[in-house]
Amino acid sequence: MTDINRRNVALMAVLAQIFATSTSSAEQSPPSNAQTGTYLDRMPRAWRGNEKIAIVIYDHMTPLDVVGPHYYFGRVPGAEVQFVANSLRPIPCENGLFIMPTATFETCPADLDVLLVGGGTNGTLAAMRDPATLEFIADRGARAHWVASVCTGSLLLGEAGLLRGYRATSHWIGRPLLADYGAIEVDERVVFDRNRATGAGVSAGLDLALALVQRLRPLEFAQAVQLLSEYAPEPPLHGGTPQTAPPAVLQQVQQLTADFVNSARQMSVAYRDRH
Amino acid sequence: MTDINRRNVALMAVLAQIFATSTSSAEQSPPSNAQTGTYLDRMPRAWRGNEKIAIVIYDHMTPLDVVGPHYYFGRVPGAEVQFVANSLRPIPCENGLFIMPTATFETCPADLDVLLVGGGTNGTLAAMRDPATLEFIADRGARAHWVASVCTGSLLLGEAGLLRGYRATSHWIGRPLLADYGAIEVDERVVFDRNRATGAGVSAGLDLALALVQRLRPLEFAQAVQLLSEYAPEPPLHGGTPQTAPPAVLQQVQQLTADFVNSARQMSVAYRDRH
Predict the structure, then answer these.
(1) Domain span holding position B59
(2) Is A12 within the bounds of a domain?
(3) What is the per-residue pLDDT across A122-147, written as a single tens digit (0 to 9) for each?
(4) The pTM is what?
């Protein structure tokens, strides 16, 4: 047992004590949407199921990429949603937000209904270089009923060999690299091709997840969770894509993200050359 | 020291060890956007500032209410964004997502540039009944440059006495209760009235936060982070409001949320009767 593993065991023991006294018994069990009470237990029987959904998280990722989808997945009655990471230590996402994994690559169910991978910048590059992360994504992705990504999470799917021959999208800064992974680049916000579902940058996770929920449950359920989330967006500005942003703003963001794109391109080209 | 406090001290000691070995030194310092590297350090000097932003989190809240705003606030160069809770234990939000606080009600800066409160259902009711939470929100809200809420977080602002005489919105299930708190109910997605900024349900946090960022920084910065988040939403369905949802779906969600609304109404009526 390594030092870090020993510390994780100690952490989990402390957490178990805290949760045992400070929260209801529901938190001690694996997260399952059936247990959350409030209103899910009143939903129609036709809306119930038992999917196993895994959301991959890793250091320095963009939390909104996965917390948007978690909102919708987390309300699918009977589904079990796990945040999966390489260990159970709290995962430092971007800008001071930590998310607690609920399963590890080892304890995550072998056969998933949905595997979802979020993105980021430097954190995603590190994950793309991490054999354990790629192996987990490739393994679960080979059997999952749905394989999904948000933002540059698509580059992780690509690096794991899961996009070869599939139409796919990504954050606009990463989309031109998809071809290196054998994918057919599509400039759309959400792209479904057979069992692959890929979303554009960050905020597209909401659109992607709602579209997936539509495929997991009757239309009325998807409509209900959309209404519950009051998802009728009205962005105060209208430049969310490279085509609609002011050219000077586009140029600025391209400069700010140039290092990431260059590093990611080195990896995608290396992948292409290996295959 | 209570048992729970003792356990929290033990937890933090374990966490400190883990972070010391497993993450860079940046995570040990208070979160400040200036430290995140990647691209923020390349942004124009005119985009830099030093705001103190506090996001209030509490048990069983809706994490997306605050993680959307955190995306935008977390990119404001030089701003310090804290997740503030009644203790430093990991906060169990809805459906198995835990967020780690970075400050407590005691350690949070006294004078804030932005105070943001998210919502939920049963968790929000419990927070509305918690004197320490209300006292913190009332105290920081009395001096904060901006006082903001997402979703039913507006009911927390109301209960803390911060909405009297202000135009405000909320999640559509909570909006009819705002009048009890002395607010003027407005059926809009984002409502600004002097220094109060309130948003509609859950997903409106993105619109609210981007509108706030527009007020903290030059327009070009807000445009840049909108493009970076690829915020050009395309919901796959079009029934995100009570007006646009199918009537049967609206009725279903009203039934599912009836207990919450009844409990919240008891509180808002009691507030009205006390004032």
Answers:
(1) 31-274
(2) no
(3) 999 999 999 999 999 999 999 999 99
(4) 0.88
